[in-house]
Amino acid sequence: MSPQNLIKVPNNVTSSPSTTKWISPLQYLKPASIVPPAPSPLPPPPPPEPERRRSRFISHADAVRLINRQTDPQRALDLFNAAAAQPGFAHNHATYSALLLKLARHRRFPALDAVLGCMSLEPCPFHEAVFLRLMPLLCRASLPDKAVHLFRSAIPRLVRRNPSLKALATCLDALVETRRFDLAQDLLTDARARFSIEPNTCVCNILVKHHCMSRDLDSAFGVLEEMRASESAKPNLITYSTLMGGLCREGRLKDAFELFEEMIDKDKIVPDHLTYNVLIDGFCRSGQVDKARTIFGFMRSNGCEPNVYNYAILMNGFCREGRAEEAEEVFEEMGKIGLQIDVVAYTTLIGCLCRQGRVDEGIELVKEMREKGCKADVVTYNVVIEGLCKEERFKEAMGLLESLPHDGARLNVASYRIVFNSLCARGDMEKAIGLLGLMLGRGFRPHFATSNKLLLGLCEVGRVADATVALYGLAETGFMPESDTWFRLVESVCRERKLKRAFDLFDDLLMAERVI
């Protein structure tokens, strides 16, 4: 705003040449012998107008980041629409991909279908990758038909080209993993007929896995022979490892070892740690741990030094047979050769010691884990808690339940149920009712059968008031007692001539059942 606009003429003064005295600017250059008249005070300038905050333009990268950050899929959809409402903005593959995956992971499948419909109206090209990521999510959500629809229809329409071999392998594997073998076979036939896709080694390996999972080993070996005769789908290490695993699960260990030797001699394929693990695990599960041990020597003679997973499988085999001393020897050997022992190996040995009543040694191993920077997980703690309960060391077990969460350990509902079930089985209702309060306060609920057992046990020892309080607490979590438990509880309340409490309890439970 210019200075002229800040000067205003008062309303009671007329601005005309006859009344306004002209003052030459040269007067300001002369000595101030005569004081000029004081100028009229200028009115204060008006307050500046507040600056309007310009809304930030949401770019494609911003939209993707904002959609991925949302935990509410509806909020992600609102952001997607808000970005589209901007002048000059058009969604692209990245923004559509972010929204599709967000909706699929939150199982908002009607919205997912609507977005896929909108994509067909977009001029931008889409890539196959997003549909490959959607296929396993749809199959795990029991929507395998939608996954097949993506392969047959969505990819050709939106990507504007036929599905790739990778798309076939992804969809086929998702169907096999969810045991939809019927759709898997139809998909393979359709891929050949409509899209002229010939299976490669990866697709054939999925077929081998499919036959092994359905326990049709003859068909699995038929695929192997076709692969050997093929020029584009030769068998590889995964092919043989899958077949050996299928044979081991059927108890055909001799055939598995013969196939192992055939792989080396006939197809000149060098086995790796995973292939050896299949054999080690097969022998261990069949109770032939000593034969599994000999495979270690065979590995070393072929230049393949056993890794931590090979040792863990062998140690688990010894533990399964109750041979704790030999499991400890394997554990110590791992440390001597410099392997980094992980939480799985520690937990395996701790479980073996606890099952043999050597809980204190297991606890020492937990301490050793902390010293070596190997963080124990909930499975490790549950193994120790179960060992303490088997020795009826309930005070120590309950002490762990109380203290471990404060030390940063994350327990689960099984941690509490192990102790609660043991207390109820032993008839220690005093400790059980105390643990119930801790469980409910932390958001965990006991098993239905154990809850009924607790209420019956409290009634048997005459602690009707505690049984009533426990029932109210359990009812708030949605628990409703069995009819026998309910009749026994009402009978105990009536025996104490407290009919009003019985009727109040009955009314409250009926109300709770209606709400549920």
Automatic annotation (TrEMBL):
Highest taxon of source: Eukaryota
Organism this protein belongs to: Musa troglodytarum
InterPro entries: PPR_rpt, TPR-like_helical_dom_sf
Molecular functions per Gene Ontology: mRNA binding
Ion transport keyword on record: no
Region (Disordered): 1-20, 34-53
Statement: the UniProt record of this protein carries the keyword Aminoacyl-tRNA synthetase: no
Biased composition (Pro residues): 34-48
Protein name, UniProt field: PPR repeat
Family statement drawn from the similarity comment of this UniProt entry: Belongs to the PPR family. P subfamily.
PROSITE patterns, per database record: PPR
Protein keywords: Repeat
Extent of the PPR repeats: 236-270, 272-306, 307-341, 342-376, 377-411, 412-446
